[in-house]
Design a protein that fits this description.
about 80% helix, Serine Threonine Protein Phosphatase 5, Tetratricopeptide repeat, 2 domains, mainly alpha, 14 helices
């Protein structure tokens, strides 16, 4: 689902951010370079101890979608430094991107055992929530106890996400409201609150939440998609069509929005 994919992208961004701030004794997980896999391999043959070059190679493989090779490099490095939270975090990121949730969780748990960065905990709590694992609530409570000022919004989001996935919508809304009170620009919280209201058949209330979200971030494709779903429930077909078109304007590969738009346009003919 689009929702799941975007939650995964949130997790990945958290993990990469954590790499940048990690105090683990490794260089940053740098972005992609223009060098090809072949040229980076050639450079590694000249400088076999260069961690930076190996990171470039991981990124090059990642850009190609060759996750097995990227993970293989990380595994090779872990043979020499199994206590590196940084490396376990990179491995978790690669697994998440390759839709291997179980191995991603395992890798992230290793990273947390070594160095429990709040960003690691947020990522793990988020994925636990999506698989309806109550450990997500324990992680959220830990974040609130230890650093509410920094991690409170993420902790409340994790709670809201868990309650949404377990169909406890009233608790979800309460948690998401707490998240938004700490950060009014938290787009995923608007999405989850709107979904809770949608599931409770409160379509007009959900629309209010979504309109607020797209006003704050006018390229929020998921906001427009869920607006379309609400308008459909209210039998406002033209508004629904316009909303789905807006979602596709900002993400042309949004398959759910494309399917909904095609369905409505066919029914109008």
């Amino acid at each position: 689902m689009k929702r799941a994919k975007l939650s995964c992208s949130l997790i990945i961004s958290i993990l990469i951010l954590a790499s940048c701030h990690s105090t683990d004794k490794k260089p940053r997980y740098v972005g992609a370079e223009t060098n090809s896999v072949a040229s980076i391999k050639s450079a590694i043959r000249k400088y076999p101890d260069s961690v930076i070059l190996k990171e470039h190679l991981i990124e090059a493989y990642r850009n190609e979608g060759n996750y097995d090779s990227a993970i293989g490099i990380v595994d090779s490095e872990l043979l020499h430094d199994s206590g590196s939270a940084y490396l376990w975090n990179i491995k978790a990121t690669l697994y998440f991107e390759n839709d291997d949730t179980i191995r991603a969780i395992n890798s992230l748990e290793h990273a947390i055992d070594i160095y429990p960065l709040p960003e690691y905990l947020v990522a793990l709590g988020t994925v636990y929530a999506e698989i309806k694992n109550e450990n997500s609530l324990l992680i959220a409570d830990k974040l609130l106890r230890e650093n509410k000022a920094k991690s409170g919004k993420d902790a409340y989001f994790i709670k809201g996400l868990y309650y949404n996935y377990t169909n406890d919508y009233q608790k979800a809304i309460a948690s998401l409201d707490s998240c938004l009170s700490l950060d009014f620009s938290y787009m995923y919280a608007y999405r989850e609150k709107a979904i809770a209201l949608y599931e409770m058949t409160q379509y007009n209330e959900a629309l209010k939440v979504l309109k607020r979200a797209v006003m704050l971030q006018n390229n929020f494709d998921e906001g427009y998609y869920w607006m379309g779903k609400c308008y459909e429930k209210l039998n406002q077909k033209e508004d629904a069509i316009q909303s789905y078109q807006s979602a596709l304007l900002y993400d042309k590969n949004y398959s759910e929005a494309r399917e909904a738009l095609d369905r409505l346009e066919r029914s109008s003919n």
